Amino acid sequence: MEQLNGRIIYKGRAEGEALVTNMPISFYGGVDPNTGTVIEKGHDLEGISIKDKILVFPQGKGSTVGSYTLYRMKKNGTAPKGMINKETETIVAVGAIISEIPFIDKIDTTKIKTGNKITIENEKLTLC
């Protein structure tokens, strides 16, 4: 087990399987809020569902409507269990906060691989 510390964007606890990308994510237009599937053409997660995963990505991109898209995903039951960024920005931070999705940043995301079991607990990240 390895433990990393980051900065809390939204406190809480989430456990699950990591889904990692090195590409930024646009929730508005890039993820289907009804299924949780990445639909952005050419994205390395295209066709993959982020539902119930610990989503690891460098940062968000795109429209401020992305915050609401995350909220809609939470209400639809298609949101990730938790999120980890290298360096977050306002759109994703607001989306996580209004959706109450545990979220941290300031993490060296290169240490995390898809399939790793992860626990987020406030500012702490445990890799198993």
In terms of topology, how is this protein built?
Blueprint: E1 2-5, E2 7-10, E3 13-20, H1 27-30, E4 54-57, H2 65-76, E5 82-85, H3 90-99, E6 103-105, E7 117-121, E8 124-127
Parallel strand pairs: 3-4, 4-5, 5-6
Antiparallel strand pairs: 1-8, 2-6, 3-7, 7-8
Helix pairs in contact: 2-3
Morphology call: globular
CATH class: Alpha Beta
- Strand fraction equals 25-35%
What low-confidence regions span 5 or more consecutive residues with pLDDT below 50?
none
Considering the protein shown, what is the CATH homologous superfamily?
Phosphohistidine domain
The total count of strands amounts to 8
User: Strand count, sense and closure of the main sheet?
Assistant: 8 strands, mixed
What separation lies between the terminal Cα atoms?
5 Å
Structural category:
alpha/beta
CATH fold descriptor = Glucose Oxidase, domain 1
What CATH architecture would you give?
A: 3-Layer(bba) Sandwich
Radius of gyration: 13 Å
Q: Please, how many helices?
A: 3
Strand order of the largest sheet: 1-8-7-3-4-5-6-2
How much helix is in the residues? 10-25%
Secondary-structure element series: EEEHEHEHEEE
Tell me the count of domains.
1
**What is the mean predicted local confidence, pLDDT?**
96
